[in-house]
Amino acid sequence: MERRDDRSGFTDVDRAADPGHFVRLLDTLTAMDFIRTYKLQSYELLDVREGDHLLDLGCGNGDDALELARRVGPNGRVVGVDRSETIVAEARRRAEGSGRPVEFRVENAHHLDFADATFDGCRADRVLHHLEQPRQALAELVRVAHSGARVVTCEPDFETALVDSPSLPVTRAILNVNCDTYQNGWIGRQLPALFKEVGLVDVAVTPFTVLLGDYATANQVLGLEASAQRARDKGLVAPAEATEWIEQLQEADRAGRFFGALTAFIQSGRKP
What we know:
The chain is of the alpha/beta class. It has a domain at 7-157 and 184-210 and 264-270: Vaccinia Virus protein VP39 (Rossmann fold). The chain contains 10 helices and 8 strands. Strands 1, 2, 3, 4, 5, 6, 7 and 8 form an 8-stranded mixed β-sheet that branches.
């Protein structure tokens, strides 16, 4: 049975029972203050200038590419790419009538259909943890960037996820299941080395810890209920333990003492 809040579905949105669910989920996440905050940081690290040609890998609903297009101005160009035809169609719809120099294409992140040294900057936001070969995708970003271009990625490390709970073993089991749901749940900690492996220089890491002060937000970001169900289905926790864990978190939320967090990392580097 497909879980509607299963983030692993981003690996192949078009084959999901309801592809539009992922469009709506992206909007829910993008509306969160902390996500808007780190996105602004990533734009600054990309060092966007008027007239630049930029690539936004894993463009989602297109909102970031549209903002980048505003920043490069009429003489610039932004290309947003995504694997999902559903998501690219939504991005194109949102760009209609904007007058901004932006286009959206369906592309395979592992084999981009662009010539070498095409872009003045490349960005990937919360996409590499969904990919089978993140190093290959990163190498492609470097290939299509020209010398001196900035490459910026934004990725969580899902094993940094935490919630305050009296049930330590159950919490560890469920949160580890959440991490392992993704193709690359550790990508946040792996990217500094990968940036250097693909030849980037001036590599910098900016940590960004997200504080999750209520149950609803934490459930949206960490998929608490889906992870509890998955851990139960795998036999890692007993059904009663999974149910009690969720109830404890919800009770903490009602009492005003819920706490959770997740650390993400903005990586930047320059192609020599």
